[in-house]
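yo

u said u wanted the structure for the complex thing, so here. seqs first:
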Amino acid sequence: MMIRKNKKKGQTKLPVPIPLVALVLVISSFALVYVRLQSRTEKLGREIKELEAARESLRDQLVQEQCEWARLQSPSSLDQALRTHGLAMNWPNRDQIVRVRYDGSLDASRGYELRPPTRVARLDRVVMND
Amino acid sequence: MTESRASTKFLLLVALLGVAMVGLGVRLVVLHLGGAEQDRAITAKTRTYKQTLSVPRGRILDGSSATGILALNVGVKDVWADPALLMLSNRVGVTVARLRPLLEFDAAELTLRLSRTNSQFAYVARKVPEALAERVAALKLPGIHFEDASTRSYPQNAVLCHVLGFVNSDGVGSGGVEQLMEKYLKGSPGLIESRLDGRRREMVDRRIQEIPPKDGADVILTLDQNLQYIAEKAVDAAMERNRSKAALVIIERIRTGEILALVSRPAFDPNRFREARDPQKLNRTIGVVYEPGSTFKVSVIAAALNEGIVKPDQMFDTENGRWLYQGKILRDYHAYPRLDVADILKKSSNIGAAKIAIMLGNEKLDRYLRNFNIGSKLGIDLPGEEGGILAPATKWSPISSSRIAIGQGVSVTGLQMLGILCTIANDGMTMKPYVIREVVAADGTVLLRRQPEVIGRPIRPDTSQLMRKLLGRVCEEGGTGTKARVDGFRVAGKTGTAQKVIAGHYSETEYMASFVGFLPLEKPEIGMIVVFDEPQPLHTGGAVAAPVFGEIAEQAVRYLGIMPEEGALPPARTGTVDGGNETF
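structre next:
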């Protein structure tokens, strides 16, 4: 009688159960993804912080420039600048002023570009309505 | 045998790992569910980070087309030192010596403060401009540090200081628009609550909450920096010429009540408000009352004409300049036997004005003056407005009306006096004066927009028109206000030379010289008052204030683009300056 060979005897058994391995692999994958995402988030966070600081810095710079510009274009500074350069400015005499009446005849449909009313010279200009 | 040993080892390993895991699990449960409240609180506290995000205060802009910035917050640095470190390294003297050329401080006092070994913090200088702070930082001095700060800056220095006010060291608006519009200007700070990492750096991805800051809103004024400069320049030059103690100028747009320029002297630089004295901080245009003198005759004559009690050509006996009434003598500066109502105004006759007031009667005079807002505030949107002084008619003496008619026994602010003239120029309608046109949030939303507001109509339009004509005559030949004339325009107005009350008596040497008027005569656009306190040696309104009115008005009409009118007389500011014939 022939003795049946036990095939299972020759097989190498894993020291840990397969479901455990699968579980470890899944958890490891999740952990890796988590670490990667965490690292990206941190990097983005740092970038946000840097951009916030840059924005503040630019804002400060803008305000400084606005302040300086306001100082430079103030009437007293302009007056001072004119005097420094030996320039004298006077209001024009009445006979040096040409006043043009705007009769309202120009309109866009006729191919003209209408300027805002305050920029059009008018003889009957009422200042309080500007 | 071998298999069994391996299996035992494996089981042992699993058991050990199991025990370790259970241990960790138990610890985790203990930490999370109980028994470690205190630890958790400490950890959370040390790792939680809260930062209040300060917001820049809103800007204040002028009403010109350029919308010039009058006030804004700028970043500065506070420079501080570590005295303990400086003492340890024996560098106090060197540090002070190297900082001295750059920063303003008392070297001896700073040396003393930096010589404290038990202190690790001492300010060297505060509110240092960033450019200067960079120069200090470039010195790379050990133990010197910088801290970000913010300060209110007024780029145009003293220009419009009384309107703007200033911001105190706590960042709160004090005086002027800064005070009145505090709730709009200050904005609301933001908040960041977050976690810190092991190196105490914020972990942006772990932010718990973030409330964005809301920037302060911008306040746009009706005042025009160019007109203001024109007025300030003229007033400063006149004050130097006339050696006045103080002065004020207000320019108002008649139809709307918008204030276009507001000058009060002496002034101060709001950037250095700590150095300003109280008289400098006082806004004389609205915060100081004075006896208006002859300019006040306008209100009495307007009231009498409106009541129909007198007519412009009605003659009055002006008693050759000396009139005894109720046992008291009233004098005219120039004696006239008879004058009609129109000339009483033109020649500024005290006796004529007094007689008109007596004809009007106490009750009606009181009612008209109160309708002209004398004795009550006009409600301008600036803090510190005075209402003037006008006693109730029931408390008047028998001569009160005759004295009130010439601007004695009644006190007004410059704004109130201008209000009377603007009412006459505006068909009898009194407009509420205002300096704030708009408040605009940082996102462009308009939070507040002022509209012209009529607050009274003390006289009819026909009376107003008649008064305009009469006031126009004041600037014609023979009138007291000839020097207020403007090339191409007919000016209407009234001079005033009021004796000041010193120690209960009218002074013979100290006066308030004023001119209040408007132009163009036919279609009035702007009203203006000019007042000088104690000018010397010339002291009359016609000689001191009227020329300044003319000088400012001449530039103002051109700047505003107001059209010239026919029939205007040439200016009379050049040539000999006489005293005019103002009355007291």
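Chain A is about 50% helix and 0% strand. Chain A touches chain B through 30 residues (CB under 8 Å).
cya
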